[in-house]
Write a structure and sequence with these properties.
With 358 residues, this protein is mainly α. It contains eleven helices and no strands.
């Protein structure tokens, strides 16, 4: 069937709309940082400075006791926007219903969540209409893949944010979604078109769908990992007397233990999806090329990514890794994933060079 060019334009219009609404969401999340609940923040500030310094000293002391650099959990921040940690440092779901929790978080959070949801709806519509325009799964080239994975990342983060009441992370994750989506729409936009012959298979709907979902999920812990390392660095600078305690942004964020736990949970959720995608790719390769595995560059880097995330999960389960070491491993895994997408598929010749980027 011929490509529906008009519907392709509709898809792009919805994508631009989503980008604008996402941007408004980021502004609202930033407004919550700057102006949200000023009375409670001001009342908590004196005691929080002492707690910041105590947490910094405790975490550095724990790091000194362990040659690997693990950290003791810091106390949860004195803010209603972060879910309180229990004695084990977990992130429990609150008993308060989600809609009530959003209202109680303040007007900035209400506006930010509303914008994010509307943006996600427009983004999903853009992906669906793109698929209808080309009469196939809408991730047959680099542009479609990035727009789809950012849609997954936005929806997955909205679910995690509402479930665990971590509103303050919205400015970081949704900000990263805006930047990624904006770069995709300006630098690698690809007009609707037919697939190259090698991708004209029902396995596109299986293999690439799984990889798109997993990449979108891994996008969220990658952003959280950078936030964790930033908070960790500030905490250590406070303990060393190189920075003043009571940073307003850090005080409103979840504790480093909460960040660590949320990162771990998202990777646990995404890893089986990535594993299934790799297996489905091997089956597709056997049907298309007569072999399950041929050490093609994209196959190799997908396997390297799998090994890195498996190492992260194995270390957490057996060696009890916490803190910076674990986040370095999972960020290395995401770097491997991005290298595979942006470098291997674009610049290295292979049987998977179907990025659509000219």
């Amino acid at each position: 069937m011929p490509v529906n060019v008009a519907l392709g334009h509709v898809s792009n219009a919805f994508l631009i709309t989503a980008l604008v609404i996402y941007s408004l969401s980021v502004v609202a999340f930033a407004g919550d940082f700057a102006f949200g609940r000023p009375r409670r923040a001001a009342a908590a500030a004196p005691g929080q400075q002492a707690r910041d310094r105590a947490a910094a000293l405790a975490s550095v002391g724990a790091a000194g006791a362990s040659a690997a650099g693990d950290q003791a959990p810091a106390p949860a921040p004195a803010t209603a926007s972060a879910a309180p940690a229990d004695d084990a440092g977990t992130m429990p779901e609150l008993a308060v219903p989600a809609l009530r929790a959003i209202r109680e978080a303040g007007r900035w959070v209400v506006a930010a969540v509303a914008f994010a949801m509307i943006g996600a709806a427009a983004h999903t519509t853009a992906v669906i209409t793109r698929g209808l325009a080309v009469h196939r799964a809408p991730w047959g080239n680099m542009y479609e893949f990035v727009t789809a994975l950012t849609c997954v990342a936005a929806i997955f983060f909205l679910f995690a944010m509402i479930r665990y009441r971590v509103w303050t992370l919205g400015v970081f994750v949704m900000g990263a979604v805006v930047v990624t989506l904006g770069l995709a729409d300006t630098l690698i936009y690809t007009a609707p078109g037919d697939l190259v012959p090698a991708l004209q298979s029902y396995w596109l709907d299986i293999h690439v769908t799984a990889m798109t979902l997993a990449t979108g999920i891994f996008f969220v812990p990658a952003v959280l990992g950078f936030v964790y390392l930033w908070v960790d660095r500030y905490t250590r600078r406070v303990a060393a007397g190189q920075a003043a305690p009571g940073n307003g942004i850090v005080r409103r964020l979840p504790s480093i233990e909460q960040l660590d736990r949320l990162t771990y949970r998202t990777i646990v959720f995404g890893f089986p999806v990535w594993t299934f995608g790799v297996i489905a790719g091997a089956i597709w390769a056997d049907q298309a090329w007569g072999r399950y595995w041929g050490w093609d560059p994209v196959e190799t880097w997908a396997f390297i990514t799998w090994v890195l995330y498996a190492a992260f999960l194995h270390a957490r389960a057996t060696a009890g890794w916490r803190g910076r070491r674990a986040h370095y491993v999972q960020l290395l895994g995401f770097a491997s994933l991005i290298f595979n997408i942006l470098v291997v598929q674009v610049f290295i010749a292979g049987m998977h060079s179907y990025s659509g980027v000219s």
